[in-house]
Design a protein that fits this description.
The structure holds three protein chains of three kinds. By secondary structure, chain A is mainly alpha-helical. Among the domains of chain A are: 85 residues, NADH-ubiquinone/plastoquinone oxidoreductase chain 6, subunit NuoJ (Four Helix Bundle (Hemerythrin (Met), subunit A), Up-down Bundle), CATH 1.20.120; 32 residues. In chain A, 78% of the residues lie in helices and 0% in strands. In chain A, helix 1 runs antiparallel to helix 2. The radius of gyration of chain A is 21 Å and the shape is globular. Chain B is mostly helical. The longest helix of chain B has 47 residues. Chain B is globular and about 110 Å long. By secondary structure, chain C is mainly α. Chain C has a single domain, classed as Helix Hairpins (Orthogonal Bundle), CATH 1.10.287. The relative contact order of chain C is 0.13. The chains are: A mainly alpha, B mainly alpha, C mainly alpha. The interface between A and C is large, with 87 and 72 residues.
Chain lengths: 173, 618, 100
């Protein structure tokens, strides 16, 4: 039964990611990504990694992508000009690079697929267990990430300050 | 016992003098000349002392001392001296005649403003010549050989502002360089044949021991190559062309270098290293014929010369040819004997000529001279002694030494004897011509260049003349052969040869008197010999041939090589590499396109390739 | 049977799509979004490995990756805003002053 779920969610994920790359309107891009994150979260739950799945939803879809939406709205973009396709002489190279990557990945996978006929283990990534490990073994990285977020805030504020002091008002663009 | 300190002092005294003059005394004529004279006299005194030490015992003492100079695994070169009877005789000649000439130069170069430089060069030359005499191995010999060539260049071109003098200096140096190339090849060949690995040596004593073991054909080649050096330095045919032009230098230079010592260095080399030549009949025959032909040809050319110094230069060439011939006939001692006596009377003749030139205020054409017997008696008498010695009139020294050579030729090879005798006859003829034209008869109306009253030269110049005249006269009786021939008994006098050579000499002088005894304004021979005379005047066209060769052949090759180097090596090869770098850079520049996505693309491509490498697919 | 392999294949496909997006997108916003896709794909493979190997480390890594990704997106968007102010466009091609 669960593999039906897997295939359905996987196809939704793939379609959503394709939509992220190919949609015209930037709003559609962001919303497609939201759908992708949702399906990813479902996959995590399938894998019994509950904590991470919820964190993904809360932080990613909840905060980050909403932030994206804010910016997209603020920038007041001219949708038509965004996707003006110019003759790009490297486009073929890019697509070829992508396929090359895919094929090399498949190659790699071939070897490991035969090697591991694995059954899923019985661990469940619940909040208690993850929390236990986080606050004992991985305490130092945990504390350091708060520092990292502080730095990020500094960066953003200084960037925005510069723009504000020199700049044109957003409303007049 | 021979005292080595004396030898070292004799070796380096002139060098010290040269250094002192160069660094401190270039402003003072008096001090520089005195320093130079002091240097050479020190060497002379030390040589005399060593002479007495060597001949204290019978057999004579010998001494060799060396410092290790270069010492690698397969190559050892020493710096030292080898003192034996041959060396001490040559050293006495060099320092003795050298001292006389140095003293003479004090007077001759009095008026010249740059005479300190002259004495510095003279001292350098003395040092180099002593180096050649004393060296005990080929590399050191070669070093001093080249140094002597350098000193000769400096001295010939002493008046460098005069174009003919500068050119003559260059000519001498280049011709010598040619011969030295062959010489060096011979030295290296001999070294490589002298053993294997570290056994190979440049020392004369070591080489003398291993000569019997060397393949005869290779030995002949080595001997001929070593003889190349002699051809250049001692001005044999075909490299004789530099000696005539070398007369552009001051007369003391001509006396010292181009008569008595430097050109005799080749003969000395042959005698010193005779062990290399002795086993090879081919080489010896070649040497003998070269010498004989040089002697005859130079004598013929001397008949047509009108410059007093050039006539004497040709006579030097001729006598050198005789010495070389003697060595080719396996007579190193006869050759050295003649070298010694020749040093005496040739130096005397040149210094006498210098005295004449000085007295006539630098006039050198013999047809503008005459009747100097009355005006410059001392010069004239000493010049006569020298002339008679050169012609081989008994009982002067030249007779004894030349007779030794002619006897050697008479007994071994009739062809060579005839050539040598002919050369001697011609020698008497042109020397008589010289003497009668310059000194006989009455003075012409226009005398010399400045029409000043001609008078005898000062004592500082005539005293050396007298000294050398005495030596030329008694040189046959002071026992030189005894000291040189100490290993073997000298041969008794061959009466046939002695008689024939004396008669030829006297005939030559008489013939000269018949043609030139009366006062003439120009040479009566011109009319008699016609076309042949023109050939003589052009020195048998040797110079013309060499000039043609250099202009047409050598210049073309040089220009071709220079073009080759410019186009192919520089433009193609070096330019090609630089163009490669430049164009490579130009192409790689496009990677910096400024577009972030292009960079990302390259990044990803790189990652893919790396991945494929790591997965061992590629 | 859902094996590890299926999850990994899925992760690879998402990664390639994200790669294509990064290389071929016109606007910087889309590039940033594709970057998120890349991160998501790698998160998936981490969690899959964690589950199938019985080790919690993978999930913790995912936790930190999400954190850092959030910070990075914030700064990226700030940069895009500044770029928009200066150039009035968010085309990636316009940023080309640092060329040879």
């Amino acid at each position: 039964m669960s593999h039906y779920f897997f295939y359905i969610i996987a196809s939704i994920l793939i379609l959503a990611s394709i939509a992220v790359v190919t949609a015209r309107n930037p709003l559609y891009n962001v919303l497609s990504l939201v759908v992708a994150i949702f399906s990813l979260s479902c996959l995590f739950v399938l894998l019994e990694a509950f904590f991470v799945g919820m964190i993904l939803l809360l932080v990613y879809a909840g905060a980050v992508l909403v932030f994206f939406l804010f910016v997209v709205m603020c920038l007041n973009l001219n949708v038509a000009s965004l996707n003006v396709t110019q003759k790009d002489r490297f486009r073929w190279l890019e697509i070829a690079a992508g396929f090359l990557f895919l094929s090399s990945f498949a190659l790699a996978l071939k070897s490991c697929l035969q090697a591991q006929s694995m059954h899923p283990s019985s661990i469940r990534g619940t909040v208690e267990i993850i929390g236990q490990i986080l606050f004992t073994d991985y305490l130092l990285p945990f504390e350091l990430t708060s520092f990292l977020l502080l730095i990020a805030i500094f960066g953003i504020v200084s960037l925005a300050q510069g723009a504000l002091s020199t700049g044109k008002d957003l409303k007049n663009t | 016992m021979v005292n080595p300190q004396l030898v070292w002092i004799a070796f380096f005294a002139p060098l010290v003098a040269c250094i002192l003059i160069t660094f401190f005394l270039l402003k003072s004529k008096l001090l520089s000349s005195l320093t130079a004279i002091a240097g050479i006299l020190t060497s002379f005194v030390c040589s005399c002392l060593v002479f007495t030490q060597i001949f204290q015992s019978n057999p004579p003492n010998e001494l060799q001392q060396s410092l290790s100079w270069i010492h690698f695994d397969a190559l050892t070169i020493n710096f030292g001296f080898l003192m034996n009877p041959l060396a001490i005789m040559m050293l006495l000649v060099v320092t003795g005649v050298g001292s006389a000439i140095f003293i003479y130069s004090r007077g001759y170069m009095e008026e010249d403003p740059s005479s300190p430089r002259f004495f510095a060069y003279l001292s350098l030359f003395a040092f180099s010549m002593i180096g050649i005499v004393l060296s005990n191995n080929f590399i050191q010999l070669f070093m001093f050989w080249e140094l002597v060539g350098l000193s000769s260049y400096l001295l010939i071109g002493f008046w460098y502002a005069k174009p003919s003098a500068a050119d003559a200096g260059v000519k001498a140096f280049i011709v010598n360089r040619l011969s030295d190339f062959g010489f060096l090849c011979g030295i290296i060949l001999l070294w490589s044949l002298s053993g294997v690995g570290a056994n190979r040596s440049f020392q004369f004593t070591d080489l003398a021991a291993v000569i019997p073991g060397i393949d005869p054909h290779l030995l002949t080649i080595t001997a001929l190559l070593l003889f190349c050096g002699v051809i250049g330095k001692s001005a044999q045919i075909p490299l004789h062309v530099w000696l005539i032009d070398a007369m552009e230098g001051p007369t003391p230079v001509s006396a010292l270098i181009h008569a008595a010592t430097m050109v005799a260095a080749g003969i000395y080399l042959l005698a010193r290293t005779f062990f290399v030549f002795e086993p090879s009949m081919t080489a010896l025959t070649f040497i003998a014929y070269t010498g004989a032909i040089t002697a005859l040809m130079a004598a013929i050319l001397a008949v047509a010369e009108n410059d007093i110094k050039r006539i004497l230069a040709y006579s030097t060439l001729s006598q050198l040819g005789l010495m070389v011939m003697a060595l080719g006939l396996k007579g190193p001692m006869q050759g050295m004997y003649h070298l010694t006596t020749h040093a005496f009377f040739k130096a005397l003749l040149f210094l006498g000529a210098g005295s004449v030139i000085y007295g006539l205020h630098h006039e050198q054409n013999i047809w503008k001279m005459g009747g100097l017997l009355k005006k410059m008696p001392i010069t004239a008498i000493t010049f006569l002694v020298g002339t008679l010695a050169l012609c081989g009139i008994p009982p002067l020294s030249g007779f004894w030494s030349k007779d030794g050579i002619l006897a050697l030729a008479y007994e071994n090879n009739t062809v060579l004897y005839v050539i040598a005798a002919a050369a001697s006859g011609l020698t008497a003829f042109y020397m008589g011509r010289l003497f009668f034209v310059v000194f006989w008869g009455n003075a012409p109306v226009a005398h010399g260049k400045n029409h000043h009253e001609t008078h005898e030269s000062p004592a500082v110049m005539t005293l050396p003349l007298i000294f050398l005249a005495i030596l030329s006269a008694i040189g046959g009786y002071i026992g030189i052969p005894h000291y040189l021939f100490s290993q073997q008994e000298p041969e008794a006098l061959n009466m046939t040869v002695a008689a024939i050579s004396s008669i030829i000499a006297v005939l030559g002088l008489v013939f000269a008197f018949m043609l030139y005894g009366k006062r003439n304004t120009q040479d009566p021979l011109i009319a008699k010999l016609g076309g042949f005379y023109t050939a003589l005047q052009n020195k048998f066209y040797f110079d013309a041939v060499y000039t043609w060769y250099v202009d047409q052949v050598q210049q073309r090759v040089a220009i071709f090589l220079s073009q080759f180097e410019k186009e192919i090596i520089v433009r193609l090869c070096i330019g090609g590499i630089t163009n490669l770098a430049r164009n490579g850079g130009k192409t790689l520049r496009y990677l910096q396109s400024g577009l972030v996505q292009f960079y990302a693309l390259i990044f990803i491509l790189g990652a893919v390739i790396l991945f494929l490498f790591l997965s061992k697919t590629l | 049977m859902i094996t590890l392999g299926s999850y990994l294949i899925l992760s690879g496909i998402i990664f390639s799509i994200g790669l294509l997006g990064v290389m071929t997108s016109r606007s910087t916003l889309k590039i940033l979004l594709s970057l998120e896709l890349l991160l998501a794909a790698s998160n998936l493979s981490f969690v899959a490995f964690s589950k199938f190997n019985g080790d919690y480390t993978g999930q913790l890594i995912v936790f930190f990756v999400i954190l850092v990704a959030a910070a990075e997106v914030a700064i990226g968007l700030a940069i895009i805003v500044v770029m928009y102010r200066h150039l009035s466009t968010i085309q990636a091609d316009e940023l080309r002053t640092m060329k040879w």
